[in-house]
Every structure is written in structure tokens, then in C-alpha cells.
Write the C-alpha cells for this entry.
Amino acid sequence: MKLQTLYDLQQEINRLFIAGSKFAKEDPRLQKQIPTLQKLGEKAPVFKKLANDLEDLLHSDAQPSADKLMAISILLYSVLYTQGETVESGDYEEKTLTPILNIQDVNTKSSYLQLKPVIDALRIPNSGRLEILKDAFERKLFKDSRTWPYLEEALADKYTELCDFVEKTIIPSIGQPMIPFLLKGFLYKDKTEHQRRLRLLYQLKYSGIPDMIEQISLSSLPSLQVEAIRILSDNPENETLIAQWTGDKNKMVREAAEKALTKLSERNSLKNKIQQKIKQIWQK
Amino acid sequence: MKIEEFAPNSEAARNGRDLVNKNRFSNLKMTNDKSVIWGECAGSGKNPYHCSIDLKDPLQPVFRCSCPSRQFPCKHALGLLFAFEKGDTFQTSDIPEDIVEKRKKLEKKQEKKVLAKEIVKEKAEGSKKMNTAAFVKKINVQLSGIEMAEKILKDLVQSGLASADAKVVQTLRAQTKELGNYHINGIQTAFNHLLIALSAVENEAFTEVIDQINYISTLLKKSTDYLNKRKDHPEDKPELDSAIEEQIGYVWKLSELMQYGLCEENAEITQLSFFTYDHRARKEWVDEGIWINLKNGKIYKTNNYRPYRAAKHIKEENSTFGILKLKEMFIYPGDQNPRIRWEPEALLEKRYDADDFKKIIFWSYVNYAEMIKSVKNTIKNPLMDKHPVVLAALHKAYLKNGKLVIEDREGNKLSLSDYVFFPTTTQLINLLPSQCENFALAIRMDNDVESGYLSGQPLSLITPEKIVRLLY
């Protein structure tokens, strides 16, 4: 159980530190803490001591006030450090863990000096970053799962070529274990980084893609819609769905929809042609 | 052994590898027994650099190069080793005369070093005659420094943290610098930390500053009592069950640690985690290793300090794997995770065998209530480490409100989260199976006094087969 009194007192003590201990004399808000502390003091002597020290501080002049405030603060913080709760209160459901890899297959063998420059190259704008990543890719350092959260973050980097390399080469080489990281970073926002995440999730065969596309279709997020249309155009059954977008108010979306329809019809006509050819051969 | 470990920093290793990729090496040669390799590396000038590596002791190769770089070993010598490892063609040849000479010189030097160490040891064992007058004089200087420090702190608290504008901070900085003249560098560092915390305050969140004020005022009080006691009884031993000496600013010598028996013979330890951080108050980089003693389960720290000014010339440490067998392990006076050190020659490395992981898991806390109690006992003391590392035996793990929670057999729970100043390690969520009996987790504790939550950041997962490092 959390002892709110202590945290309230902490607020007051912090306030005095900020304003200056010279203002402690007859401070009404400090005064208010004393009765509660005295009551608690009946059970545990430490509260009684806090109450007494507080009383003392309330009657002290500017000169000795600093020492007194510090003494109370030390005691209070000591007590607070024993009060920490180890789990959040509140009724939350326990959810089972679903590991992305068998623990035997998790690789964290790289040393600090091998890994650090690579993680820095993913995070910090500096010259020669792409070369470091290419070199690390050849040395198979991205098999180490500690690079994965940073790879995902790097999709939002300002340096497009670096994002491209991460998206097109590194992440696909890791495959499905990247899915939870991508999901963590993905937001329904009109930004290229989220377009990249969506594209990768589809490529890695994430099972929730249909739901995501549905949500995107209901929003006005052109760059994500463009990506969604590209994904839909892989399946001829989506033709009518895509057709709806040809009247969209955004030019980018309209163009993507038209392009997707052309792709589908080309594929259809190619299919028709092949079927005709087969027919002809049969008829002969 | 990984070549990166010899490099003074990660950049040098990368540049060395680059040199190999760019074919800058020529005239590569080695001795018949492959104990010495040498060659030429093209630099920016007309003449190539001559570099060689003596691999007589493969764990401690001797690098040499004719380039003017102050980094040691330089990228050329590292590159040469990369080329050798990669399998580039090295022609066999006789050992060059100058290397034979240098080998002899080195042997002589090492003999001298061993001799010098024995003398130190003898000195440590023999009773050292103390210069009491000088000792008391030094303490008096320290005490007057502490008095000054008390005044600085009192003034600040009395007039309030909100009053600390740029001008006040500047005065504080000057006063803190002044503290450096009183042999109380530890206290000076504590004030530096206070200044840094003060300048980092946002949205009236002063808790960290106040925590540091608590630390300093406790330290000043304890130092005054302690030093007065020392002054009255100079012949008594220094306090060895707390870090007070170091907190005031004393730097322990290994011979003293030996003299006071703070030394374990034939220790067996292994690294659980590693991280390098910027200690702005000390103006140093700190390479911190977290270790466990396989014989008693105690968790230690190693700190390799690299001052900003000299950082380029001091080797950045690397994470290490395997068991270290130490002839002598020195243990600094301190709290829950004392600092340890050893001499490089006292070290023998061994690969892990399956038993080692079981040994580590054996030492983990099965009951979290006990574990939390020991942590709270440490952190409630203002002078002790607020982020002790503990080892918890896992029974069950699950997600609650998006957070990873671990549970022991009795149903005691601990929620895990990232510590703001460290890289994320809660990716553990994606790796840990729900049934994780027989696993142990090394955790760095963090108590947020404002929210009232005590949580842990996972550092490494120990399974019966291996150590999964989550940090480094």
C-alpha cells in the first residue's frame, strides 16, 4: 500500500528546497502535514521523528533552517526508498509471452566494440554511416538481436539511402522476428517511415495486414493509402476495392489506384492472351 | 580472442579492417612458427609504414609500427592482424634482427616489473611506518575543505534552488573548482554532479537535485565525523566496510587493498553485462563491467575510467566472455556491488562449460521478497549505490499493461522496465518464453521516488546453456 502522506510531504519538502529554506518558518502547508504524521507516529516511530523535526523546522530562523530542512529531507527520502512498489496497481490482464525465436537460437555473441559502432551508425548522424552498416551486414552482425530495435528506429532516419538499405536489405534478411519491433514503431501517420514499416510488415507476411489496410482505407493518410493500394494490387480480387480510390481527392492516391488497376488489367489481359493461346493450341 | 579487443577504440579497429579491404598491405611475411608477422602498409606519404606483431603470447601480442600515431596499437598494426586472420598470403621468412633485439629488451623489462611488484608486496606486508604529522596535516586541510563545502551547500538550500540563475551557477562552479585544493576530489565530484543535475532541470522536476543534496549533506556529515576520528587515532585502520574513503576522494592502491586483506585468491568470475557511459561529473568515460563470483555468487563491478582529456590514449574496454580465473582479485571497500580489480598477469581465461551457467543460476534469488529487501536496505542509505545489480531466479513471466513482469514461486512480482539513462533492453519481451523456470535474470534496480515504483532493467538472461546479453 502506498503511503500517500509521505509523497505529499515530499512535494512540500521539494517546494521548500526550490523556494529556499528561509521561508520555512510558520509555513501553513507544512503545518498541515504534522497531524497526519503524528497519528502515523503512534504506530511507527519514524513518523513521529518526522513530525517532530518538521515542527522544529517551522520554528526555525533563516540561518539554521537549511540544516534542518536537509535533515528532514534525508530521513524522508530514506523512508521513500523503502516504499517502492514492485508492480503497478490496477486490474490488468496477464498476457502470455510469445517469443519470436527459440531462446536457443537467440544470438548475442558480438562484443561491445563490435556492436557499438554499428548501433551508433544506426542512431547518430555522422559521416560514413552507410559504409559501416554495409560492412556490418557482410560480417553478419545483424544476426545479433540487440541491433533490432535500432534497425527499426533507423527507418525514420533523415538519410534516405540509409533507410533504403535498412528496409530493402537488412530487415528482410532477419525476417519475421522483426515484426514485433516494426509494430511497436508503426503509427497511423502520414510519414514515409510508416510507409516503410507497412511495406515491410506485408513483405514479412504479418497476419494483421488486412485489418491495418481496412483502418488505413477509412483514414485520410495519403502515403499509407498509396502503400495499401500497392499491397492490394497483388491480388486481382481487390479490383473493385482499388477502383474506389480512383476518385480520391488526393492526386497521389488517385494515381496509385490507376496504376494498380493498369497493373491488374495488364495481368488479366496477359492471362486472357495465354488462355486464348492454349485454346488455339487445343483447337488445332 | 577478438581483434577488436586489442584496439584502443572501435574506430581504430574499423580503420584497420578498411586498410585490408583497400589492399594497402604489401610484402607480408611471417616466421616459420607463425610467432611473428610483419609487413608494409601504404600511408598517405611516399614511404610505407613498417609494422610487425609478435604473437609469442597470443593473448598479449606485441604490436609495433613505424607510423607516428599516438594510438596504440595503431590501425596499421591492427590491419596487419586482420589480414593474417583473414588468411591473406604471408611468405615465410627468418625473424628480423631488430625484432629479436626488441624481444630480449621486453623480457628484461618484464623481469624488472615482477621484481618491482615483489618489493611492493613485501612493503605491503611489512608494517609501514607512518608519518603521523603529515597525515594529521592532510586531514586538517580536508576538514577545512569540508567546512567550506558545507557553507556552499547551506547557502544554496537557504536561498532556494529557484534562485540559482546563471550568475549563481557560475559562482557555484567557481566554488566547486576551489574545493579541488583540499584533497577532497570525491566531494568535488559530488558538487559537479549537483551542478549538472541543476542545469538539467525541466518543468520544476527537482527530485534528482534534491536527491543529490541529500547525498552531499550526508557525505559531508559522515566525512567530518570520520576524519576527526582518523585524526585522533591515526594508527587505526581506515573504514573498510563502506566506500567513505573513496567518496571523500581517496584513490586506493592495490598494495593497500592487499595489506587490509581485501583480496581473494584463486577467484573465478564471469562477466554478466557491460556498458560504457559518460560520467559528466567526473569528466570521464567509464567502462563498467558487471561480474559474478562463481564461488559465492557476489556481484561486482569493474570501472575503467578514461578522463576526457586522455580518452584517446586510454584503451576502451570491451565486453568479455568466458570464465576468468584470477590468482588475486582485489575488492574495493564498498556496498552491494563492490568494485574489483586485478593485474593482467594474474588472469587466466577459460571457455564456458555447461556447469558454469548452472553455477550462476544457483546463486540467483529464488525469493524476490528477500531480494527486494536487500535492495531496499542498500538504496535507503543516501551514500550507497541507488542502482544495485541483483540476480533473480525466474519462475514465470508475463505481460501486464504492456510491461514485462516476473514472478517467483511464492507469487512475489517484479515489473521490468528500461532505465532512462541506459539503452533499451526490454526487447526481452520478444525473446523470453512464459515458462522460464531454471533461468536467471541479472537486473539493475531503479527506484523512482516520485512515482513510488521500484523496477528493474534486465541486463542479461542466464539459461542453462548460455548467457543472453541484453545490453552489451
Notes: Residues 163 and 254 of chain B are 45 Å apart (CA to CA).
